[in-house]
Fold this protein.
Amino acid sequence: MLKELFADLHLHTALSPCAEEEMTPVAIVEQALAVGLQLLAICDHNTAGNTAAVQEAAAGRLGVIAGMEITTAEEAHVVGLFPSAAHAQAAAAEVLATLPLATAVDLRFGEQLLLQADGTVCGREPHALAQATSFTVDATVALIHRHAGLAVAAHLDRPSYSVLSQLGLFPTEAGFDAVEVSAAGRETKRDRLALLGLPLVTSSDSHFLSDVGICHTALWVAEPTFAELARALRGDGGRRCSVA
Amino acid sequence: MNLQELTAALELTALTPGTSPAGELSGGYVSDLLSDVLANAPADGVLVTVQVHLNVVAVAVHAGLKAVIFALDRRPEEAVVQRAVQEGIALFCSALPAFEIVGRLYQHGLRG
């Protein structure tokens, strides 16, 4: 039995240097429940270190997909969504290995907090997460697929850090599973991006709690899980997604 | 060439008027790929770019740059300007494309 669910498939935690420290697992989950979301994806920059903690904080009250927002060598952002936190961590290990260690200057632009479900700080990511990895766009999509994930071209409407802004044209041969339009661009850019012929999602890309739920993707699925999302993107068995 | 001479010679708009790191500019670099800037821009130099987000300031601090010139009249958000002031990086804006700006810098004796 299919039902309509609201998903926000791109949120950051305090692990991302550019995100606020208020973005703890428990705070994100409570805020998401308060604004009526049923499925989230946690996508910190070049790491998946807090995904399991957010899944634990959710405690089954809503679905939480383990993801990661990878900065490609061309400085384009690509979101990877994975079937489990273990898959995401395995992909993240490959990504992190290509980054330098963070210096005092990096940390001046934001801490990289590893958190427990309740928000307690349990460590700090040593690599410089704001920098570009060695993976090209094609290699990034391949990496995500190798770890059984879905590859989404992030905020394709934005003038910086998007596949379009960095490459100038959309690499159809790369094999993306979906493209994302930002909250700001979903009214004006949605129709043009739909011409790419890939499923379109919209996500908040939240770095602050107040951004959670500013937009959502509607999914017609059986339950809020990675497997159902994958089927919705393929249009399998009547499942579908829509940018509201 | 110091920052005062640079501003006058290229008719730049100063976005951080109170911030003017002293001393001679060591050279210049032009790129929109920040990982490239990080690896190759000369310390105490000036960067010409069309990127206007916060990471430009972070990279400028990393690379030890004195100033950034935004080409094609690109304007950063106020938070980016404030952060540059805090970090002591001078920001400028020019209506010219990057190629023109770099050509003029070279004409005025600045090298890569």
The mean pLDDT of chain B is 95.
